Amino acid sequence: MKFASQHLQSATAILEAYDGAVPLHHFLKGYFAANKKYGSKDRRSISHLCYAYFRLGHAVKELAAAERITIALYLSAADEWKVLFPAGWQLHDNMEARLEQVKQQYPMFAVEDIFPFHPVSEGLKLTAFSLSHLRQPKLFIRTRPGKTKAVQAKLDAANIAYEQPAENIFSFTNNTRLEDVLTLHKEYVVQDLSSQRVGNMMKLPVGAGTVWDCCAASGGKAIMAYDLLQVQKLLVTDVRDSIIKNLVARFRESGIRNYNHLVVDVTNEAAVKKALGKQLFNLVICDAPCSGSGTWGRTPEQLYYFSTDKIKHYSELQKKIAVNAAQHVAAGGYFLYITCSVLQQENEDVVDWILKHTPLQLAKKELLKGYDEYADSMFAALFVAPA
């Protein structure tokens, strides 16, 4: 690639100035705004190299930035960057062969060091999961009810390449621009494949019931529940007023009118009781705050800077939220616990805590492994309240 060496030098300079305090894409946007000399292609190439550095996670952290970037590019089979590869490094099609080539020059390299956090949820193939961080996940969308055919027709007319994992799910390369072709929120929502598969647990015999999304954030799970269920009453809450304001705007654009919203700290039992009183719901959705470890393929800088002390912090939050929210599940109703984590302390351990400290019974739990499909990995557990 032309200018590859210059782009590598620029990337290493940026990495020296970056400390992980803000998301990498925000930092890069500010950096390029202050340095106007870079054209659009230069910005894309340099950004790619910066992300490559973090995709190695905690492996060979002692190496210089340029070496880490080169290893990541080689392991991801980035043929366009082969000019940067050391002499003799053949770009084998087989990952095992590429790993062996790297280990010959860097014997300290170990795949398990990319993602060194343990224990992980049952069923996770750690080697495959670790290596998945070397590639950018795909962009996934879910079509809104009745919009699938129209969306497909527009994509075909615009010659936008896509795959269709399910009837109302489309996937694209991550840099695909859809906003000039489709109407966000009205025709489709951006939602990862595993997140959409959580919807399978929402398809419950609750009929035209009541739903509370207790950690609503941007409202993705609430909108999915609205689309999948005959919801008579929908309540969305979050601890942050700014998030609720953004959610209200998104709901307006999505055509959702029949709902209530509140700012509530669900870790505080007294605050929950004051806000909700004795309200009970057929379905309570708890998409709990978490490490996000199942999504670090999209934000590898978080993988690089993550420290194990945060796991206990999130686990304690999750336990408080789950127990407080579970008190508002109607008899015979359901409680859906969700994280975008692959760590046992945030997943199975919290499930055990819920079973011990609430009357809920476990109906199903599942690690949604997206790493083999260029998607995020998530965990979901469905509980039922005694009738």
- Tally of separate domains: 3
What class do helices, strands and sheet pairing give?
alpha/beta
Classified in CATH, the superfamily of the largest domain is: Vaccinia Virus protein VP39
| Poorly predicted ranges | none
Strand and helix order:
HHHHHHEHEEEHEHEHEHEHHEHEE
> Strand tally, please?
11
The termini sit apart by 65 Å
Give a short account of the largest sheet.
7 strands, mixed
Write the CATH architecture name of the largest domain. 3-Layer(aba) Sandwich
Looking at CATH, which topology of the largest domain would you report?
A: Rossmann fold
**Strand order within the widest sheet?**
7-6-5-8-9-11-10
Structure report:
Helix 3 crosses helix 4 (65-75) and helix 13 runs parallel beside helix 14. This protein folds into 3 domains: 4-114, no CATH class; 139-190, no CATH class; 193-384, Vaccinia Virus protein VP39 (Rossmann fold, 3-Layer(aba) Sandwich), CATH 3.40.50. The strands form 2 sheets. It has a 7-stranded mixed β-sheet with strand order 7-6-5-8-9-11-10, with helices on both faces. It has a 4-stranded antiparallel β-sheet with strand order 2-3-1-4, with no helix packed on it. It is built from 14 helices and 11 strands. The protein is α/β, with parallel strands linked by helices and 387 residues long. The N and C termini lie far apart (65 Å). The mean pLDDT is 95.
